[in-house]
Amino acid sequence: MDKVSILLLICLFFVLFEGGLGAQDPSVTKVVNITNDLGSRINLLVHCNFHGKFHDENLGLQTLSFHHSFSHSFKSDDVTPKTRFFCFFWWKNGNDVFDLYNPQRDDPRFAAKYSWSIRRKGAYSYDEKNHRWDLLYTWKK
């Protein structure tokens, strides 16, 4: 083998195993944040569950007053297409349940933070790429 062939093999090795096709992304921490934006004097009760690749987690009941938030974080290596992060919501004159994290829906829209604003009309998520709040879920009547 000549020197050029050896050099090409070395470069191919680095491309495949040191940051190219053979490399794996490091685990990223993902954060789901829920904020009560229903209005003053309206408390929001939230009970969330996370079902990941490696573990399931019952996050318990949280009471959020107006403009207060609740967050939960998890590692991206705990995510599969079947991963679910869903919450039950109760407030004055309403209640509902929906998925706050769905990999197929949310990963193309978000980097690592999934922000939700719970409002009277429904659940709004913050689109990081377009810098806007989008109504993604309308409350059932």
TrEMBL record:
Q: Which GO terms describe its cellular component?
A: extracellular region
Compartments, as annotated in UniProt? Secreted
Q: Which UniProt keywords apply?
A: Secreted, Self-incompatibility, Signal
List the coiled-coil residues.
none
What stretches pass through the bilayer?
none
**Protein origin, superkingdom:** Eukaryota
Q: Could you confirm whether the keyword Translocase appears in this record? A: no
Q: Name one GO biological process term.
A: rejection of self pollen
Tagged with keyword Repeat:
no
InterPro entries hit by this protein: Self-incomp_S1
Signal sequence, renumbered to the chain: 1-22
Q: Which family would the database say this protein is a member of?
A: Belongs to the plant self-incompatibility (S1) protein family.
User: What PANTHER family does the record tag this protein with?
Assistant: PTHR31232, S-PROTEIN HOMOLOG
**Name of the protein:** S-protein homolog
Per the UniProt record, the source organism is Malus domestica (Apple)
